[in-house]
Amino acid sequence: MQLSSLLERFAEPETLKMAKLGRELRAKGVDVIDLSLGEPDFDTPEHIKQAAIQAINDNWSHYTPVPGFLDLREAVCTKLKRDNNLDYKPEQIVVSTGAKQSLANVLLALVDENEEVVIPTPYWVTYSELVKIARGKVVEIRTSVEKGFKATAEEVEAAITPNTKAFLFSSPCNPSGAVYNKEELAALAQVFKRHPQVTIISDEIYEYINYVGDHESIAQFEDIKDRVVIVNGLSKGFAMTGWRIGYTASSVAIAKGMEKLQGQFTSGTCSIAQKAGVAALTTDLKPTQEMAEEFTRRKKRVLELVNEIPGVICSDPDGAFYIFPDMSSYFGKTDGETFIKDSADLCMYILNTAHVSSVMGAAFGEPNCVRFSFANSLPNIEKGWVRIKDALSKLK
Ligand code: PMP
């Protein structure tokens, strides 16, 4: 049987592949520490779970409107006003089965064959693959650890052509943790003002995991707001990855396009999860803040541990829950058995020798780096990094 050529155009997520390899090793009895995955290791807050239980008891068991229940879309608008001082109406909101689906919706709604989508490196693995599914072209802007893994306005200007359809970025960034401040976003907005053919896709899913201050959205700049698509969701900020609720805020025209796609792909997402989502977005953020405080403690400890290891250049992430060190000084080395050619080899070596799973930087468009999550308990993080240090010391 011949499967479609579409399947050959894109790769499976490297993050999920590494987690699977880790699980396989664990099934063989090996004590594997998972620093590969991108989800909070916390339980969903109690009041959100109660709202879901109530929704089941109230028989919210039928198909839902394609763009989401009105009360949830209103709750998203309330949240955007409360947290971001942004004005949106419910018809501008499309609720989806996770921010991942929202990204697929927006790219498929916008991008035609060979149109360019500009993405600064490093970027979340799924971005480039979704652009390929949409038959668009990825145009990378290479950043570096020295530049804080952020693209400057000049670099973005230089990357834009008449064929550019969209600019796609996350702030806080997965994997680098980079956070664009208001001045940097204002400079980018000035560039986009000069290029009206460009839609700005702003992935803000790590909004609440920010170590440097208030979250800033590029949608705050009125001149370009109508061309910004905010992508967000409940997975990270509310420890709700399995509930599958994402959303976008955009112009009505883009929202209608996404709704049309979603109407054929998935319909409206789970009714119970949506009702829980209303509770998440309209009640207090204390559990979210406590989670962010715990991530702050872990980040501090991880950086202490990593900075003890020679040849690892690691910046202090401003947001999200990953570190993304440059480990290229280990390329070309060997422990006598395994030769380390690149970041993929290094991740496999760390998995097989230290029994710690991570994700190679190449998957994020940054081949010198490796991503390690700190969404794991402090004891596990400490144990993991002692083992990594030991494994790396054997490479000569
Ligand atoms: N964007 C980024 C940057 C992410 O890291 C993730 C999850 N790893 C998502 C979007 C998707 O989140 P979800 O589909 O769970 O809402």
From TrEMBL:
Residues 31-376 form the Aminotransferase class I/classII large domain. It comes from the Bacteria. Its EC number is 2.6.1.-. GO terms for molecular function: transaminase activity. The keyword Coiled coil does not apply. Its cofactor is pyridoxal 5'-phosphate. Pfam families: Aminotran_1_2. SUPFAM superfamilies: PLP-dependent transferases. The keyword Cytoplasm does not apply. Keywords: Aminotransferase, Pyridoxal phosphate, Transferase. PANTHER family: ASPARTATE AMINOTRANSFERASE. Belongs to the class-I pyridoxal-phosphate-dependent aminotransferase family. This is Aminotransferase.
